[in-house]
Structure formats: C-alpha cells, structure tokens
Design brief:
With 573 residues, this protein is of the alpha/beta class. Helix content is 40%, strand content 20%.
Length: 573
C-alpha cells in the first residue's frame, strides 16, 4: 500500500482561514477542493434551484393535475435504503401537498422474484392498486419494457431516478417512453449536481410540485407545507447510497443531521437510532452509512423492503420501535449469512489466486451455488476493499440465472466495462446496469466462466500498474495542539463521506506498548509529538514495529464520564 499526503493548496487554505474557518478545517477542506467559504454554507437557500433539474417542472404539473383530480398514484420503489427513503419521502411529501386519503399506494419489487426496476411484472403488481399514474423512485431510467407495458395499459408514468440510462447496440442512450423523466443524468439536463441520490431527486420533484401548487393558489404563501421535515430521510438515503458528497449533497445531509440532532425526525428514524445504540443528538453521517442504512438494506437483501418502508412511514413511536427491532433482527441474520459467504469466497479466491505474493488478477468474479443473492453486493465490496480490484459476486436466482453485483475501484467504470463485455460477448449479459463504482448483471449459469474471462480481459486493457496500486490518501501529520476533545468534536460535526472523505492523518510514532483485546483488535500506547496517546487498530492481530509510520483517525473515547482523544489506526506505512 502506498500512503501519500493530499495536496493542500496554501492560498485556498489561507483564504478559508481568513473567512473564519477553523485552521484545521481550512486545511482539510482546501485539500478536498473547497474553493470558497460560501461552499460551506449549508443553508437551504443555497441549494441548487429545482428549476434547473430537467423534467422537474413538467413532473410537477403532471402530479399537480393528479392531486387536483384525485387520481390514484402508485409508487414503484427500489429495495435498498435509497429506494426506501425515496418512497417514504414521496408518500409523506405528496400527503403534505394535498393528496387525498386513499389515493396513494406503493409497491416494491422482491429482489429474488422480480429483480430490479419497473419490469412488466411489477407493472401488473401495481395494477392491483388500480392506479391512474405510476411514479418510480430510484429506478425506471432503464425500464424500457416496463414503461412500455404501463403505457400500453393506459397508465401515465413519471420516472424519477439517478442511475445511468440504457444504451443501444451502437452505444447510444435510449430512454423509456415515460410521460416525463426526472434524472440529472439524462441527456440535456443541465443540473449542476449529477450525484443526487434517488431520494434527492424525489425531494427536488416535491420542491417543484410545491412551487407549481403555489402558482395555482393551492395555499397561502405563509401556509405552504414545510418539506424540510423530510430532510432526515433525504440525508439517510443520500449517505447510505454512497453517492458523491458534492456541495449540494453535503447541504442536504447537513440539514438532515441538524434535524436529527435536535430530535426533529421521523419516529422510524428515531427507532432505528435506538436499536443501533446511537445517540441522535450526536448523529453523524457515519451513523447513517454504517448503523441505520445497513438495517434498512437488510430487509431488501433477505426479505421484503416493505418492512423498511413501513418503519419510515410509521407515525406511532411504539409501532416504529417494533418495526425497527424486526429490522435489527434481520440485519443480524444478514451478518451471519455474510460471514458464511465471505468464508466460502475466501476458498474460491484461494483457488483463483493461490500465490498471494504474485499480483492478483486484474478483476475478480466469484460464484457459488450456495451464495445468497441478497448479500452478493456486500461480499463484492469487502473483496474489492481487500484486493483493490474490480469484483463481481454472483448467486443463483429463482429463475435459474446468475444475479451478480459488482464493486469497482477508481479508474475503472464498471457499467461501461459491462457494456463492452456485452458487445464482445453478444447474448452473455441478459441484463446489466449501474454506475461507475457499482453495477449489477444477470447472466446464464453456463456463462459464468465466459463472463469472468471477459471482465478480466477488459480490466487488463483498462487498468495499468499505477491504478492497481492501492493508495491511501492522508491529510499528513496532526499537530499536538489538535489532540483535544473540542477539536475532535468539531471534526465529527462536519459532513464527510464519498468523495469528501473523513480526515485521515499520518505520523511517525514510537510504540510504547501493545496488546490484543477481544482476541482480534490491537490496543496500543504510542508516543506522538512527545505525548503518550491511546490507540486501537480494529481487526489487527499482528504486532506493530517499535517505530512506525501510522495512518489514523481521531475519535472521542468516553471512560467514566471523561472524554479522551483516541487514535484509530487504519494502516502501517
């Protein structure tokens, strides 16, 4: 692993500090591309305007007409946290904006039976709710057949999505024949943030709908519904979907966190904090990504995301607590399934890569008949982190085809790689789609070996030695004056996440003492800048040299009511 320090443009850091930004934060923000202090203002008035999101105004008119005439709207959700929060935001938001009782419903695909998106089968399932209009959230941009089926049945279809559109055989974008499409990644959309999550897109549609209703005189200006009450859900879905936290997304997340810290959140969100053992008054994006998000995702992975959506829609705290407890139990089951799959994946990987001193394959694809379809994405992500290689993991679906989920590394656009594989191996990929860093594919079971070879061939062509070198970017040394609780609390209060990574420091230290705790974690006593520091390295059992260059984060450790700064070791340089 190559540990390298981020570049800190000194003039940017200086200008941010002169604008009143904490000196350490000024350095960290400058290294992450913040150019002006105004980018750090998380006020809602600084959000990108909905008028710049192509299709939002037209969708608002279609939805406003539907509300005015009492038309029945059925949402088609997705089975991950982004889809669940987007569904809850849509249902709560439409109700706030005047949807009549009994006119709103939703369906969510079963991962194993229906697969992803607005398929013809899901359209038929939605028809059982007798809708006049289908509204997709976090899906639909590539649902050509499903949209066509719905339109043939006389249904209007409003697509809200953030995924990349489908491509035809010539590599040209093909859009579904929907009534209207809202997606920042569709051709012709000038919205500055291409990284909205599905829940963010739906929130923007609601903002546009409120503006449309206001022009129609639906409510007095001082009595318009407060959509900011939905921002805890928007923040949760945005972080859990691991989208890039550009300035606009950081504002959405920051506003959601503020409401959570003030305990102004949905009862279901509060219940999820409780079962996760997290204090909402000190909530961070980490809680959304690693505590709440996985519990919601577990429902979609192992059973039915209806459980997660109902938790987010529930207004009764007691009932919400019961639903959160069920989600927590499903998540514990998910961990057990994942542990077993990771052990089997390690066996398969050893066969594929018997000599770990030799370079790993340029890309990895694994399949075992006993793998669980709902957990392949998690295992692919774990293997990608370990190997620093694009990784696909497949499981056998109920229809006999292999359903795979892939995770990638910087410099390898996974969806584009699948597109090239499909062109080189016509008929091999039955379905595929996704992003640069995550994608899914369905292949015949007999085609697994061909897929593995084709993916490795593309990776060998696209990836050079520099890209395959695992790199850990740090923020350099942390001065001794910053090892105090107030500074660490200031760091923890910021919004960190994908493409705006949390601070990671690197220093030369002397190891004074080290011991194992809990049989699998290394507890250390370090001398750093002349001071003794406590440190822990989770998941490390091998001892550290007496003098070492360590990459670490800082956190607050509470013991007997006293807060102390602790170093959390990430790597040895």
């Amino acid at each position: 692993m190559l540990i390298e320090a981020r570049d800190v443009p000194p003039r940017l850091a200086w200008s941010l500090e002169q604008a009143g930004v904490h000196p350490l934060l000024a350095r960290l923000f400058a290294a992450r591309g913040v150019r002006h202090a105004a980018e750090l203002d998380d006020g809602l008035q600084h959000l990108l305007p909905p008028t710049t999101l192509h299709g939002a105004a037209e969708a608002a008119r279609v939805l406003a007409d539907a509300l005015a005439h009492g038309r029945r709207i059925c949402l088609v959700a997705d089975y991950d946290c982004d889809g669940a929060t987007a569904c809850a935001v849509a249902l709560r938001g439409l109700a706030l904006l005047g949807a009549r009782p009994g006119t709103l419903a939703y369906v969510v695909p079963d991962r194993a039976r229906h697969g992803y998106g607005l398929t013809p089968a899901i359209v038929d399932l939605a028809r059982e709710r007798s809708p006049d209009l289908l509204l997709t959230v976090d899906n639909g941009i590539a649902s050509l057949d499903g949209v066509a089926h719905a339109r043939a049945l006389g249904l209007d279809v409003v697509v809200t999505d953030h995924h990349l559109p489908a491509l035809d055989g010539g590599g040209q974008v093909v859009l579904p024949d929907a009534t209207v499409i809202v997606n920042p990644n569709q051709p012709g959309c000038g919205f500055e943030s291409k990284h909205l999550a599905g829940v963010g897109v739906m929130f923007y549609v609601l903002l546009a709908l409120r503006a449309e209703l206001r022009t129609r005189g639906a409510f007095a200006p001082d009595q318009q519904p407060r959509l900011d009450s939905l921002l805890d859900l928007v923040a949760l879905g945005t972080v859990a979907d691991v989208v890039r936290l550009d300035a606009n997304n950081r504002r959405l997340v920051a506003q959601g966190l503020k409401r959570v810290r003030q305990r102004r959140m949905q009862p279901g969100v509060a219940a999820l904090f409780a079962v996760a053992g997290r204090d909402p008054t000190r909530a961070t994006a980490f809680d959304f990504g690693f505590a709440l998000g996985p519990r919601l995702n577990a429902a979609g992975r192992l059973m039915d995301m209806t459980l997660g959506i109902e938790c987010l829609l529930c207004d009764d705290p007691g009932q919400a607590a019961d639903l959160a407890q069920r989600l927590d139990a499903v998540n514990r089951e998910r961990r057990e399934v994942e542990d077993g799959m990771r052990e089997q994946a390690a066996v398969l990987l050893e066969r594929l890569w018997p000599d770990e001193t030799a370079p790993a394959p340029a890309a990895v694809a694994l399949y075992d008949p006993d793998f669980h379809e709902g957990v392949v994405g998690i295992v692919a992500g774990r293997l990608k982190d370990r190997l620093h290689r694009p990784t696909f993991v497949f499981a056998r679906g109920q229809d006999g085809h292999l359903k795979g989920s892939g995770r990638s590394i910087a410099g390898f656009h996974l969806r584009d790689a699948l597109d090239l594989v499909s062109k080189r191996q016509p008929g091999l990929l039955l379905r595929f789609g996704g992003h640069a860093m995550a994608a899914g594919a369905t292949i015949p079971e007999s085609g697994f070996d061909a897929f593995a070879r084709a993916l490795q061939a593309v990776a060998a062509e696209w990836l050079d030695a520099a890209t395959l070198q695992r790199r850990l970017r740090t923020d350099g040394p942390l001065a001794a004056e910053h090892f105090e609780p107030r500074t660490v609390a200031t760091l923890e209060a910021q919004v960190w996440g994908q493409a705006f990574e949390p601070p990671l420091f690197c220093d030369e230290v002397e190891v004074v003492a080290q011991r194992l705790v809990g049989e699998k974690h290394l507890k250390l006593r370090l001398r750093h800048a002349g001071q003794l520091r406590d440190a822990i390295w989770f998941g490390r059992v091998e001892p550290v040299p007496d003098r070492a260059r360590l990459a670490y984060r800082v956190c607050l450790d509470e013991f007997r009511g006293e807060q102390r700064v602790q170093m959390v070791i990430e790597a040895l340089g």
